[in-house]
Amino acid sequence: MIEDRRIGFIGSGKMATALASGLVEAGVFTPDQIMGSDKLAEAREAFAGTVGARTADNNAAILEACDIVVLAVKPQHADALLEEIGSGFTPRHLVISILAGVPTSRIERFLPDGCRVIRTMPNTPMLVGNGAAALCKGSHARDEDLALAREIFESAATVIVVDEPQIDAVTAVSGSGPAYFFYLVEAIIEGGIKEGLPPEQAAELARQTFVGAAELLAASGRSAAELRKDVTSPGGTTQAAIESLDAAGTRRIIADAVRAAALRSRELGAQ
Ligand SMILES: NC(=O)c1ccc[n+]([C@@H]2O[C@H](COP(=O)([O-])OP(=O)(O)OC[C@H]3O[C@@H](n4cnc5c(N)ncnc54)[C@H](OP(=O)(O)O)[C@@H]3O)[C@@H](O)[C@H]2O)c1
């Protein structure tokens, strides 16, 4: 339990609600230590209903009531938000950003000198309390700020700490990563249908195979390569599939896709 602190979410949408309810469930904060603001009434109602916390229809109320402020609007709304509230921050606030692709230097430009910023890159499985997140420090953040942010994100994600230049690689691996797996599920469903399964059954089998394989990977403590070799008997069906993937250069194609995401992340961060 983090005592004597108040955490406020500016933008009380999907990610804020997931993180805030994770904090309550994990016992890190009580609902009365949490607040959310949003310009949308439905978002405020959903946040209050799910988290049991107070909400406000103006962002200044968060700065006034909270010493930890999570920026959780969409990245395209970041500049407008920071124009509006940036000068209201003081060094007593710890600013935690989940704005994808927005560098700490860009956030700091809107804040009074000396404000502490932690940037995070979460991913959407955080919505079900099973995310992966990376954290990095802005120029004035301290190690204890990082430790506090880690405690907050660990309520809904596995957390690593990186230097900010590595955030683009994180974005490419775990930020965009869920989409690669969904893409693979889509392709396997299509393959199953072509081999004669009804679409619903192909979808059910593919989904459960991913869920089960993911749990096995997480629970077994063994590497993906070892688990793959376990199910690949010489001359068997899995080997036929892996050979087909290798012949098409699938490993290189996926590594290229990760690289494309990292490059795009660097481009967006430079804008
Ligand atoms: N790595 C990832 O895969 C990942 C996944 C999800 C989210 N994220 C990050 O998480 C952040 C939030 O995403 P989300 O999916 O939770 O978004 P969301 O559900 O759209 O929530 C954002 C909320 O903020 C509101 N808002 C916009 N401008 C505001 C302002 N100036 N003051 C107060 N509220 C404002 C929005 O209202 P309107 O709809 O009216 O604008 C919306 O209700 C994003 O920055 C995104 O980059 C990252």
Word description of this protein:
- The structure is a single chain.
- With 271 residues, the chain is an alpha/beta fold.
- The chain has 2 domains: 7-169, NAD(P)-binding Rossmann-like Domain (Rossmann fold, 3-Layer(aba) Sandwich), CATH 3.40.50; 177-270, ProC C-terminal domain-like (ProC C-terminal domain-like fold).
- It has 12 helices and 8 strands.
- The chain has helices at 14-25, 41-51, 60-65, 78-85, 104-109, 143-153, 167-175, 177-194, 199-220, 224-230, 237-247, 250-270, and strands spanning 7-10, 34-37, 54-56, 68-71, 94-97, 116-121, 131-137, 157-161.
- The chain has an 8-stranded mixed β-sheet.
- The longest helix has 22 residues, at 199-220.
- The radius of gyration is 21 Å and the shape is elongated.
- The chain starts with 6 loop residues before the first strand and ends with a helix.
- The mean pLDDT is 96.
- The chain binds NADP nicotinamide-adenine-dinucleotide phosphate (NAP).
- NADP nicotinamide-adenine-dinucleotide phosphate binds next to helix 1 and helix 4.
